[in-house]
Specification:
By secondary structure, the protein is mostly helical. The chain is 66% helix and 1% strand. Strand 1 (378-379) and strand 2 (382-383) form a beta hairpin.
C-alpha cells in the first residue's frame, strides 16, 4: 500500500484538475439556460470529492517515483481520467450508453476524435465545450508524457527525445516540472494563435475556441456533423497550417524562442513528417483531379486538408474520402499509420521511428555490400544505440500485431473486413475516422456493438500510451520483480 500512495496522490491531483474543468461547461449551460448544467455540476462534485479525498489521504506520500511506479501511474491515471470524464455524458440527456460515454471521453482525452454522437449541430453548448476541453487537457498530458515520462521509461525508442532535446553542453529543459511548464506555455500560445486566426476568419467566438483546442491538440472533434466541411475554404487552409503546427515537436518552438533555431530545425523526424505529408498530398491531389472528383483549387484543397488531417492524426474531414475510390482508400489506410513527430500531440507510429527503421535498414544493406565495414545508424548526426534500434523494431512488431489482433476480434463481432481493419487502425493510431459508411468521415462509431466500443476504447488508450506502458503491466514478471 505504501508503494501505491504516491500514485493515488497524483491521481487525486489529476482528478481535481478535471473536476475544476467540468465547472466551465456547467457555467456555460447555466448562462444559456440549458438544463445540462446540473449534469456537469454533479459530475464536478463527484470528481472533486474523489480527487480531494485521494490527495488528503495520501498527502504525506509525495516522493520521487520509481520506474515501476511510473508505469503504474501512467496507465492508471489515464484510465481513471477517462472514466470520470465520461460522467457528464452519462448524467446529461445525450442518449449514450455507458460504453458510448466512456468511448467519447477516451476519444477526447487521447485526442483521437472518433465520436459516437450524431446530431452535433443541435447539441447543447456545454457538451460541445466539454468534448473540446477533453482535447485540450489530453493534449497537454500527451506532450508531457511524450517528452518527459516515456523517454525516461525507455518506451519504443522515445529515449531518442532525450538525445534530440539536448546539445553538447546542456539539456534543453532539465527537469520534468520544467518540461511540463515549457510545453504548456508553447501549447497554450498555439491554441491562442489558432483561436485568433479562426475568429478573424469568420468563426464565432465559441466555434473558434472549440476548434482551436481540437486543431492544435490534433484531436479532431468538431461542433458539426459535417466536420470541417461546415466551414469555408479560407478556414480550411488555416486549419491545415495549425494541424501541421500541432504535429511538430513542441520543444522545437521552445528552442526557437530561446534562440536555438539550428538545434530545433535539425531534427530529422521533421523532414520525414513533412516529406510523407507532401508526397501523399501530391498523390491524392493528382488522383482527385484526374478522376474528376473535384476540380482546380478544390482538388488541391481537399487533398491537402484531408491528407494533413490523417498524417497528423487529427481526424477532421472536408469530404467523405471513403467514396473517392479504392486507390484513395488504400492511400488513406497506409498514411493512417504514419503519424507526425514525437514530442507532439500526434498519434501513429511517428516519424522518429520511421526514420530509425529506414536508417537501420540502410545500414544493414551497407553491411551486406561491405561486410568488413563499420556502419552505425545515426539520428541527427549522433549514433543510434542497439538498444534503441531494438526498441523501435519491437514497437513496430507489436503495433501491427495488435492492430491485426484487434481487427480479427472486431470481425468476430460481426463487422465486415474493411470496417474491422480500418476502425482498429484508426483507434490504435488515434486518427479517429475510419473507412466506409459506418465509421468513416460521413458516419460515426455509434452504430457499432457495445463489445466493439469497449474494445476500441481500450485500443485508443493503448495507442496513446505507446503500447509498452500498458503491455508491461500484464506481464507477470513485472509484478514478481
Amino acid at each position: 500500500m505504501r508503494t501505491l500512495r504516491p500514485i493515488l496522490f497524483a491521481i487525486g491531483a489529476f482528478l481535481l484538475v478535471l473536476g475544476l474543468a467540468m465547472l466551465l461547461p456547467a457555467a456555460l449551460d447555466y448562462a444559456l439556460g440549458n438544463r445540462e448544467w446540473s449534469a456537469f455540476l454533479a459530475s464536478a462534485a463527484l470528481t472533486l470529492f474523489t480527487g480531494g479525498a485521494l490527495v488528503l489521504a495520501n498527502r504525506a506520500a509525495r516522493a520521487p517515483f520509481t520506474i515501476e511506479q511510473g508505469f503504474i501511474l501512467t496507465f492508471t491515471a489515464w484510465a481513471t481520467m477517462c472514466a470520470f470524464a465520461a460522467l457528464p455524458f452519462v448524467f446529461a440527456e445525450t442518449g449514450l450508453t455507458l460504453a458510448d460515454a466512456v468511448f467519447e471521453a477516451t476519444s477526447g482525452l487521447t485526442t483521437t476524435g472518433a465520436t459516437v454522437i450524431s446530431g452535433l449541430d443541435a447539441m447543447p453548448e456545454g457538451i460541445l465545450l466539454w468534448r473540446m476541453l477533453l482535447h485540450g487537457i489530453g493534449g497537454i498530458g500527451i506532450i508531457v508524457l511524450a517528452v518527459a515520462i516515456l523517454p525516461a521509461l525507455r518506451i519504443g525508442g522515445l529515449q531518442l527525445l532525450r538525445l534530440e532535446s539536448s546539445d553538447k553542453s546542456e539539456k534543453t529543459v532539465p527537469r520534468i516540472a520544467d518540461i511540463a511548464w515549457s510545453v504548456s506555455l508553447v501549447y497554450t500560445a498555439l491554441v491562442f494563435a489558432c483561436f485568433l486566426a479562426y475568429w478573424a476568419g469568420g468563426m464565432s467566438g465559441f466555434d473558434a475556441i472549440c476548434h482551436a483546442l481540437s486543431t492544435v491538440s490534433t484531436g479532431g472533434f468538431a461542433n458539426y456533423d459535417a466536420s470541417f466541411g461546415h466551414f469555408g475554404p479560407h478556414l480550411q487552409y488555416t486549419a491545415v497550417l495549425f494541424m501541421i503546427a500541432g504535429g511538430l515537436p513542441m520543444l522545437m518552438y521552445w528552442n526557437i524562442a530561446r534562440g536555438k533555431a539550428g538545434l530545433a530545425l535539425s531534427d530529422p523526424q521533421i523532414l520525414v513528417f513533412l516529406g510523407v505529408l507532401g508526397v501523399a498530398a501530391f498523390m491524392a491531389g493528382v488522383y482527385i483531379a484526374a478522376a474528376g472528383l473535384h476540380e482546380g483549387e478544390a482538388a488541391v484543397r481537399h487533398a491537402v486538408f484531408n491528407v494533413t488531417s490523417i498524417v497528423t492524426t487529427t481526424g477532421f474531414a472536408t469530404d467523405d474520402y471513403s467514396r473517392w475510390g479504392p486507390f484513395m482508400e488504400a492511400l488513406f489506410y497506409i498514411i493512417t499509420f504514419s503519424g507526425a513527430c514525437a514530442g507532439s500531440t500526434s498519434g501513429g507510429v511517428k516519424a522518429v521511428r520511421t526514420y530509425v527503421v529506414a536508417a537501420s535498414l540502410w545500414t544493414h544493406m551497407k553491411r551486406i555490400i561491405h561486410p568488413h565495414g563499420v556502419f552505425v545508424p545515426r539520428f541527427g548526426g549522433r549514433p543510434v544505440s542497439g538498444d534503441v534500434t531494438a526498441s523501435v523494431f519491437a514497437y513496430f512488431f507489436f503495433f501491427f500485431l495488435i492492430t491485426f489482433a484487434i481487427s480479427l476480434a472486431v470481425a468476430m463481432m460481426g463487422l465486415d473486413l474493411k470496417t474491422a481493419l480500418s476502425v482498429s487502425a484508426a483507434t490504435l493510431t488515434n486518427v479517429g475516422p475510419a473507412l466506409g459508411p459506418i465509421a468513416g468521415p460521413a458516419g460515426n462509431y455509434g452504430p457499432l456493438p457495445d463489445g466493439v466500443i469497449w474494445l476500441l476504447s481500450f485500443a485508443m488508450l493503448l495507442g496513446r500510451l505507446e503500447l509498452f506502458t500498458v503491455l508491461v503491466l500484464i506481464n507477470p514478471w513485472f509484478w514478481r520483480n
